[in-house]
Structure formats: structure tokens, C-alpha cells
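Do me a favour: review this protein, sequence plus C-alpha cells, and tell me how the chain folds. Record follows.
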Amino acid sequence: MTESSTSTLDKALRWFGTARPKPEARCRLFCLPYAGGSSAIFRPWQTAAPAFLEVVPLQLPGRGQRLREPLLRNILEIAGLITSDLLAMFKEKPFAFFGHSMGALISYEVARMLRWEHGLRPMALMVSGRRAPHLPDRRPPTYQLPEAEFIQELRRLNGTPKEVLESSELMEIMMPLLRADFEAVETYEYQPGPLLDCAISAFGGSEDPDVSQADVEAWGEHTSSEFKCKIMAGDHFFLVPQQQSLLQELVLELVQLWSKNPDSPRRHGSTEKSGN
């Protein structure tokens, strides 16, 4: 193995916090977490996924085995690194993306880079807990708030465990990561471009205070292919209590897409939009 190929492999491996390879799988589902989250949140999916599907949770810098790496504060920078570091994997077999909240934006931008810079099309882009990328935030930025106010915002979102919020030691560790992730999301600027031509499925929580059903449905404006929207019971972090049900929805979507196109092309092609 050459020095160059070793370097490429090392760059790819750093993204896999909870790797469980399934060589026999016919499709990979790359999963990206919400702000402050790690690849560990998708670990149950790795064991529950059917044989045809390899769930690949991606570990972002600043958490898990990447704890000592510099934090990233820009969605496009994160997406660009994923695209370049994992390009060889995206070429190996059919793939799809799932991202929640911050992960939805990252997944969307990776899908765009792969499609228009490398001619690679995912089977599907599946997103949750995030308004469509062209819609502006309705709330002012929070990543620069004083600590007490920032913690109050975390309480409002209901995604950080109470025991973490009440532990000064744990919050001292988590605060830089949370602020960096919030900055990445809150400073994201959508750049218009060609529509994706892969299927998009968007999910929302029925009690999400920041993402309405209309916000979720607006994802349909970003594909010339199929679009589905589903609202599930819960708040912004509905994917936690609904983890099993959500995985079932994602698997069903991939099975249906596969049945329509058994060859599942990854290279440049076109599909017809079937409706919103």
C-alpha cells in the first residue's frame, strides 16, 4: 500500500466512530447527528438494520475518538471534508443519507457536492428535524449568548440530558462543542443551485417548537424526483423515542426505491418527479 493510499484510508477511517462493517450489504446509509450529538446515537440502528443495509454513523470532529481534533464551525466545510475523505466509499455501492437537524443540512450539502461535482447520485436523501435549507431561521442566533442564556436555550430544545445541563464539569466539556455546532447551523447560508434528482424524504416532530410541517414539506422544492413528508409524534428530538419507528420508515423507503430501480444507478442519470 502506497503512502498516498494509506493517507486516504486514514482520512476515511477517522469518520467511523461506531463502525460495524457489513460486506454483504447492498446499500449503505450514512447517518449524521444533530448539534452536540455523536455517532453513538445511531448505534442501535447498526444492529437493527436488515441484512441488505449497512448503517454507517459518521463521527464529526470534537467528539468520541475525534475529541482532540479542532472543532468545525461551517456546514460547507464539514460537507466538503466528508465528500473528499469518503469519495471512494461513495463509489463502491449504492448509498443514502440520513441527517437530523444539523445533520440534515450536512447531508444535503454532501449530496449536492457528490451529484454536481462527482456525478454520484444517492438513492435517497432522508432528513428530519430541520426546515428546508432555503428557509431562513426565524429565531436570532444563540451560539454567542452568555452561558446562562445559552443553557436556557438548550433546555428549551429539550435535547441535552438534564444531568448534563446541571453538571458544571460536563458542561465545561460540552459547551465549546455545542457552541461550534450551533454556529455552523446558525451561520449557514443557502446557495441556490440545480435541484437534486434523488428521492427526498423529510420527517418532522408534531410538537417541534421551531420546525413546522410547512417547513418540512418545503424540502420537496429541492428535488426533481420523488418527495415524501411524514410528521411523527414528539418534539424536536422525536428521533430519540421514535428511533425504531423511524428506522422502519427509512428501510421501507429504501426497499420501495430499490424495487422501482433494482440496478440503483449511482452515476449521472435522471428520474421523474412523482409528487410532493
